[in-house]
Design brief:
Low-confidence stretches: none
InterPro entries: Peptidase_S1_PA
Order of helices and strands: EEEEHEEEEEEE
Helix content: under 10%
Strand order of the largest sheet: 2-1-5-6-7-4-3
Distance between the termini: 19 Å
CATH topology of the largest domain: Thrombin, subunit H
CATH architecture of the largest domain: Beta Barrel
Pfam families: Trypsin_2
Number of strands: 11
CATH class of the largest domain: Mainly Beta
């Protein structure tokens, strides 16, 4: 995710991922909530313009945006209730300075959080500075 600046420059803000062929994008709520002129930078270095937001959850730190586009490649969302202990995973994370970092590991535990939320504990090293992390299993395809 980037924000457009005067003079045509863009400022990197956060990572995210496209979750539907029509341009729905999940990204970090806190990083982009007060920004304007948002752009989605794709892996081929092209940009999609963000047209608006669909849903936001500040407590979970996520926002779903609607970007322009049709028939886009996307990552389908999985069902975390179907993830198994010791299942192999791959994590893709990004920071503005280093996009597309990949780590592998396994699911080592399931945690109960406040408000009935559940979390996966994983053995994969991921920097705390990474904004959005995609955790993929072998059942998911991008």
């Amino acid at each position: 995710m980037s924000a457009g600046e005067e003079g045509g420059e863009t400022t990197p803000l956060s990572s995210g991922f496209i979750i539907s062929g029509d341009g729905k994008v999940v990204t970090s709520f806190k990083v982009i909530i007060d920004k304007r002129d948002l752009l989605v930078r794709r892996s081929d270095s092209s940009f999609l313009t963000v047209k608006g937001f669909i849903a936001a959850d500040a407590d979970k730190g996520l926002i779903i945006l609607q970007a322009e586009g049709n028939n886009l490649p996307f990552i389908s969302l999985g069902d975390s209730d179907k993830v198994k202990l010791r299942e192999a995973i791959c994590v893709i994370s990004s920071m503005p300075s280093a996009a597309g970092q990949i780590s592998t590991g396994v699911v080592s535990a399931f945690r109960e959080l406040k408000g009935g939320l559940k979390a996966l504990q994983i053995t994969t090293p991921v920097t705390k500075k990474a904004s959005v992390r995609r955790v993929l299993t072998r059942r998911q395809r991008s």
